[in-house]
Design brief:
Mean pLDDT: 90
Order of helices and strands: EHEHHEEEHHEHEHHEH
Number of helices: 9
Helix content: 40-55%
Oligomer: single chain
Number of domains: 2
CATH superfamily of the largest domain: P-loop containing nucleotide triphosphate hydrolases
Strand content: 15-25%
Structural class: alpha/beta
């Protein structure tokens, strides 16, 4: 396993954009670990599996019908050989993913695939909700991005072309679910660099994060 940088934080805090650009600058692989949960959620919704049917979800998590693949620009989710990466960002998929992430057996079933992303590469930038606390606790550099809730909702609404009010309501629900779940709750990893992006431009955030990483890791 090579170098690992983790970037955690709540929804729409800028994790995906910042981590993807950081990986590009470092010449490393990039993965969004949330794609595993969203991918499983998407497939479960297609198969009409209830979010509380844990045995079925665990079985589905190991199904060859779907997979997660890394690429330079995005973490791909394939379902029945079709790229559904753009579909997993839907709010209904995100809400379902947040619900199933509460179950220890589901998290355990997906963990092996998430950790395997660091194998065979010089370095990996991993973003998600528990990358620095659970998936890669040994990461050499850990970052936690956050932002004002209204600012995050406005950012996601602009990305998806939806009403900010509905995004904000769904986001509040998911934030509460993610931060209060008993297993691997959303929290700041120990020794993480915490950065509030509310009043920062994207270039500024990327610059600060890259500076921190290069201070921690000789790259």
């Amino acid at each position: 396993m090579g170098w690992v940088v983790t970037i955690d934080g709540p929804a729409a805090s800028g994790k995906s954009t910042v981590s993807r650009e950081l990986a590009k600058r470092l010449g490393w692989q990039w993965v969004s670990t949330g794609a595993f949960y969203r991918g499983l959620a998407y497939v479960a919704l297609q198969k009409k599996i209830a979010f509380d049917d844990v045995p079925q979800l665990v079985e589905l998590s190991r199904s060859s019908e779907w997979s997660v693949e890394m690429s330079d620009s995005k973490t791909k989710v394939l379902f029945q050989r079709q790229d559904v990466s753009d579909l997993i960002s839907r709010e209904d998929v995100g809400n379902y993913a947040s619900k199933i992430s509460h179950y220890p057996d589901v998290r355990k079933a997906l963990l092996e695939g998430q950790r395997a992303c660091s194998l065979g590469h010089a370095g990996l930038v991993a973003e998600g909700r528990d990358c620095g606390t659970i998936v890669f606790p040994q990461a050499q550099a850990k970052i936690y991005l956050t932002a004002d809730q209204s600012h995050r909702a406005a950012r996601r609404a602009a990305e998806e072309g939806q009403a900010q009010e509905s995004i904000l309501a769904a986001q509040k629900t998911r934030d509460k679910q993610d931060s209060t779940r008993k297993v691997a709750p959303l929290q700041v990893p120990e020794s993480a660099y915490v950065l509030d992006t509310t009043h920062l431009s994207l270039p500024d955030v990327i610059q600060k994060v890259e500076h921190f990483v290069r201070e921690k890791i000789p790259v």
